[in-house]
Amino acid sequence: MLILCEKPSVAKDFANTFSAYRKSGFYEFNNESKITYCVGHLFELVNPQAYNPKYLKWALEDLPIIPNEFIYEPSAATIEQSKIVLSLLRQHANDEVLIATDAGREGELIARIALYMAGIKNISKFKRFWVSEALTPEIIKKGIADAKPLASYDLLSAQGFARSRADWLIGMNLSRFVSIGNPSPAFSVGRVQTAVLSAIAHRNDEVANFSATPYKILEADILDINGVSVKAKLSNPENSGFSFFKNHEGFLFDAVKSIESGKVKIDSVDTVFKECSTKPDKLYNITGLQKDAYKLFGLNPDETLLIAQSLYETHKCLSYPRTPSRVLGDNNVDLFTEKFYLLKDTNPLSAFSDTSLINIANKHIFNSAQLEDHHALIPLDVLPAAATQKEKDIYSLVSDRFFTVCMPDRVYIDKSFVFHVKNLVFKARVHEIINPGWTKAVKDSPDTEDDKTDDVQNISCFDHSSCTLESFSVLDKKTAPKKEFNIASLLSFMENPKQEESGKLQSLGTPATRAEAIKKLFSMEYIIENKKKLFATDRAKYLLDLLSKSPHLAKIADISTTTEWELKLATDPAAFEKEITDFIVACIDPSIKKESFSKQKNSIGACPLCGKDVFSNHKGFGCSGYSQNPPCKLFIPNSFLTAGISENDASLLLAGKTTKLKKCVSKEGKKFEACFSLKSDGAIKLNFPDNKKRS
Questions:
Q1: 7, 125, 191, 242: which one has the fewest Cβ atoms less than 10 Å from its Cβ?
Q2: Which residues on neighbouring strands pair with residue 456, listed in sequence order?
Q3: Superfamily classification of domain 214-277+411-478
Q4: Residue 43 forms beta bridges with which residues?
Q5: Class of domain 163-208+485-587
Q6: Please, what is the average pLDDT of the chain?
């Protein structure tokens, strides 16, 4: 018997179960049975030049590149292990083989490519181990007993191959097509990354072009006989909302006159009471962990993933991090219980946990129906004292969530009040807390939607039987645009993209690949981060503009395209792959005019040193005279002493003017405020208000 796992750690779990002993690249037990492992993807699709050396040179006439048969080669980092795996597969080709790669599309693909490379076509004796729960000896033995014929997963295999080949076709062909004839560096186009880039650029445009509209709200203080006050808002009879724009202000002003004396008795109150409860946040998956690590510690997604991987592989105190799941399996109650008692003295939140909730009936924690690939992130052991601060931060998030998830529900009565007074309607919504539950220990809950609106007030008790409109105020408001994406909100968007016209769409990327997609956008100089906001660069805008010139190319930048393709991939992989091939052929249109990237840039001002145009780039603002002899060295960074310098700031500096006051931090860590201007040599000069120098 041969067991093929995806990772060395999983192979070790199998080896421990069967008391196998280690050899070079595999384990052996019962004399003839072996356990071996891939190291992620052992094999990868070759580059175009492997099909024909002429593809080394990027030429329009050679496109599209569509291989008749795709070729794989060992990944450079796993050549030795790939030899061991192929050798063992060939030795056991006619024996019983258990495929135990991860329970998901990528895990299936990893195994099937290995079988393909080993030349194995007859899989009648091969079975599939399909388990997403923590691999305890009991779970492993049960998974082996329940293993189905590998052929039962042929559709999943076809999906994996089709997805992999489609991404290769898009990346290799469209990246070359948009790059040929344009200045270096080459552009990169991808099924996920380009759609995400388009979403960021679109959000930038929405914010930049947004025009705020003023409106008013009338807010009243309603007082009961016990002196408890709730804030209620005047309802607009035109739309049942609370906003009064200019065309509705007449009603608002008449209402003010009607109640301007204050202390007006409420005529009647309509109520709707409903008992509700909210559970604590679910366990982390990798995307949730990345979002909170960014919000709380400023860690980018890739860094969070690397830290979590270190906690898993090196310190062995965290479960497998690349997981999309937020639950454990039904069979993991004992595992959760074991880790709870092992670690409860290391985290004070455990004092608020309710161990009676650690049971198979609690589907908030244990739900095999919601498992994907791997179970949720949980702590497995005590964090070593030698761990770095960042490792401590990531571990603490997972540990806190582990002990919070088994705390009691927060229970409250949701009360909606409609106050009638002098033919006017005021509305208020309050929560009367019955049991604070988990909120006694955890005050902020990023995943809980309740109480996120300003219209909900938490109170202990309000007697609506006799109350008075005590006072009121008219508030001036303005409509606000959507917020620019930051790393956390972009991850949320990729996990659950929405469009107003079509609602929720298929997710963009997978939990394991989203960090890499965002990292690629930065490395390709498509996006920059300024004050935790993400902005598409001129280079990105040029790419998106180029793609928009063709109705076919434009599809790759449309997130709804991902939904259509993913649905087709799930139901008919062959049709999906043909659609992608036809799409590539349609996109390769030489008639599309590709203007020089540099000509698309707009100057932000004239250089005070040489008079040439200054343009923005991903690092700041540079003079176009850098290539002359001698070169002009004027450069204004987009950040100086931690203070951001915007394009408008740079334009002011070039014009000899001074920026507004900036909050700065010196190299010694001291905070101070200063305005920026340019010295005669182009360096930034600090100007201090009221002649106050930094201390």
A1: 125
A2: 429
A3: Topoisomerase I, domain 3 (2.70.20.10)
A4: 74
A5: mainly alpha
A6: 89
- Judging by beta carbons within 10 Å of its beta carbon (0-12, 13-18, 19+), is residue 226 exposed, middle or buried? exposed
Backbone torsions φ then ψ of 609, nearest 5 degrees: -95, -40
**What CA–CA distance (Å, rounded) separates 368 from 366?**
7
CA distance 492 to 146: 36
167 alpha carbon, distance to own chain's centre: 20
Phi, then psi, of 470 in degrees rounded to 5:
-80, -45
Task: For the domain made up of 2-146, give the CATH fold.
Answer: Rossmann fold (3.40.50)
Residue 157: CA atoms inside 13 Å, Cβ hemisphere, count? 16
d(C-alpha 14, C-alpha 52), whole Å:
43
Are 421 and 436 in contact by the 8 Å Cβ rule? The answer is no
Are the C-beta atoms of 215 and 477 separated by less than 8 Å? yes
b/e burial code for range 342-376 (CB count within 10 A of at least 16 → b): ebbeebebbebbeeebbeeebebbbbbebbbbbbb
Q: How far is Cα 164 from Cα 44, in angstroms, rounded to an integer?
A: 9
Residue 21, number of CB atoms within 10 A of its CB: 9
| C-alpha closest to that of 308 among 175, 642, 297, 317 | 317
Q: Which residues fall within 8 angstroms of residue 118, CB to CB, at 6 or more apart?
A: 85, 86, 89, 90, 93
pLDDT value of residue 285: 94
Which residues of the chain register pLDDT less than 50?
446-453, 501-503, 596-600, 695
- Each domain of the chain, given as residue ranges in start order, spans 2-146, 163-208+485-587, 214-277+411-478, 286-404, 602-691
685: its two tokens: 């000069």
Q: Cβ–Cβ contacts within 10 Å for residue 515, how many? A: 23
pLDDT at 622: 87
Other Cβ atoms less than 10 A from the Cβ of 9: the count is 14
In whole angstroms, what is the distance from residue 200 CA to residue 372 CA? Answer: 28
The reported pLDDT for the residue numbered 668 is 85
Q: Say if residue 630 is preceded by a cis peptide, omega within 30 of 0.
A: yes
How many whole angstroms separate alpha carbon 494 and alpha carbon 692? 47
Q: Which two tokens stand for residue 545?
A: 């503009």
Q: Is the dihedral of CA 612, 617, 619, 621 positive or negative?
A: positive
3-state secondary structure of 416: strand
Q: What confidence score (pLDDT) does residue 596 get?
A: 47
604-612: long-range contacts, CB 8 A cutoff, minimum separation 24: 604/647, 604/650, 604/651, 604/654, 605/650, 605/651, 605/654, 605/655, 606/654, 607/632, 607/634, 607/654, 608/634, 608/654, 608/656, 608/678, 608/682, 609/633, 609/634, 609/681, 609/682, 610/634
Rounded to whole angstroms, the Cα distance separating 321 from 492 reads 18
79: left (phi over 0), alpha (psi -120 to 50) or beta: alpha
Contact of 661 with 678, CB cutoff 8 Å:
no
Assigned CATH topology for domain 286-404: Topoisomerase I; domain 4 (1.10.290)
Give CA 293 to chain center in angstroms. 11
Directed axis angle between helix 559-571 and helix 573-587, to 10°?
140
Contact 622, 635 (CB under 8 A): yes
Equal CATH topology for 214-277+411-478 and 286-404? no
Global pTM reads: 0.79
Tokens of 155: 């559709």
Catalytic site positions: 320
Instruction: Using DSSP, state whether 484 is helix, strand or coil.
Output: coil
